[in-house]
Every structure is written in structure tokens, then in C-alpha cells.
Amino acid sequence: xxxxxxLEVEVNNRKIxxxxxxxxxxxEVHALFGxxxxxxxxxxxxxxxxxxxxxxxxxxxxxxxxxxDLSIDERARLGIGMLFQRPPVxxxxxxxxxVALASGKTLKDEHIEALAKELxxxxxxxxxxxxxxxxxEVKRAEVLQLLAQSPDLALLDEPESGxxxxxxxxxxxxxxxLLQKDLPIMERxxxxxxxxxxxxxxxxxxxxxxxxxxxxxxxxxxxxxxxLQDIKKFGYKECELCHR
Length: 244
Ligand SMILES: Nc1ncnc2c1ncn2[C@@H]1O[C@H](COP(=O)(O)OP(=O)(O)OP(=O)(O)O)[C@@H](O)[C@H]1O
Ligand SMILES: [Mg+2]
Prior knowledge:
By secondary structure, the chain is an alpha/beta fold. The protein is 34% helix and 29% strand. Helix 3 runs parallel beside helix 5 and helix 5 packs parallel to helix 6. Residues 40-41, 85, 157 line the site of magnesium ion (MG).
């Protein structure tokens, strides 16, 4: 699904990602851990093609095609979708319009309403996107747009941050449906890369592989739960020593 080779990225003339190598197969869910400000969001923004993230080396290959130079909308059309850590307010655009657009205008009104109901967002369809939404409501709105888009690769930037326990389970249920978790892994056609600090979302959406990012590189890959336990037990400082 996704192959990143020797990726180097500069933001504001500062090298943030130095040598990122990552392979996500079809049907796999990967978790990405790392301390604040290390470049996790920058990696997702670079995969999605947001401006300001300059690739100075390396390749991003999606479904066998190099996408380094594609625009955001071209990448979205190819099947990449993103749940933002801090999505903007979009004044003058209603949630209903945004969800319809995210689906490529394929969803009929009754489908949009059914999706919104699943995320307890039905009363938000007539509101401006994210305007006055609480932290948890913003995340549910993001998942709603993602479900409408149904991307083959979902980039999820801290989907559970600021979300209460009951709402995490609503998000988890919806994301599991998106990721076809009810099917055997060989039959799943969608993949995800989830950034999480706490791992709470992984109690609902089971990840297959975990990674730690430090110093612009992915320095450790393994079982997500084991990695999370090690981070809790030893901290990122120990990761640095272990890596050396
Ligand atoms: N557009 C930008 N302009 C200037 N600096 C940026 C920009 N984007 C990212 N950075 C800087 O790059 C570094 C990495 O930021 P990034 O948001 O990728 O971190 P993160 O690992 O997602 O952190 P967190 O866990 O706090 O979300 C930070 O020092 C950040 O200030
Ligand atoms: Mg971030």
C-alpha cells in the first residue's frame, strides 16, 4: 500500500525527517509513537502533500506509484485520507457539504445522515465545519469525513486525543468498519497509520505493527503493545540509548 524510502524532509529550512523508511502492506494497521515535536505530524503531512514540507531526498510510493510530486487532491483521489490532529474551522461550509464533498459527491442525503448518526453527529450536519465544536466533536467530525471518503490509506493523527472514553469507543467502532476489521486480514483492502501518545485508540483498533520515531528516523519497529509498554517503562531516553 505504502512504501517510504530514505525520506528526507525540510520544514522552514530545517531538516525534520532525516531518513524515514516505512512499508505498510494492504490490510495492515501501523501505530507511530514518538515524543512531542519529533516530526510525526510532519511525516503524515508530507505523505498527504501539504505545502511547506519539502522533500529533499527519497521516495513516497503509494500503490506502486511515486507520489512525491502529486497535489493533495490527486493523492486524495488515489485513496489517501487524513484525520488531522488540529483541523481548521471552515466558516461558511456546512458539515453536510463537507461530508458530501469528501465522498466525491457519491453519497446521497440519507447515507450522509446514516453515517452522521453512527458518529452521533446528526445534529452537526447543519453547522459550519468545526465552528464551536468541542475537542471530542472535532475528532468525530474528522472521522465522519474520513468514512465518507473511505480512503485505502487512512492517516490518523492522534484520533483519540481529547476524546472521552465512551466517544473513543464510538470512534473505534467506526474506524474498525472503515478498516474492514470484521474481515480476515488477507481480505482487508485498507490500511492505516495511527499516531498515538497513549495507545488508548489501539484498545479498539488493533494495530499490527508499531514504530518509534526519534531524531528524524524510525528507530524501532515491533509489536505495538510491547513497544508502548517499553516506552511507559523506560521512556524515550532509553530508546535513544538502546538505538545507539
Ligand atoms: N509548518 C511548519 N513551520 C515551522 N515549523 C514546523 C512546521 N511544521 C512542523 N514544524 C516543526 O517541526 C517539528 C516537528 O513537528 P510535528 O508537528 O511534526 O511534531 P509531532 O511529532 O507531531 O509532535 P506532537 O506529538 O506534539 O504532535 C516541530 O519542532 C515543529 O515546530
Ligand atoms: Mg503531531
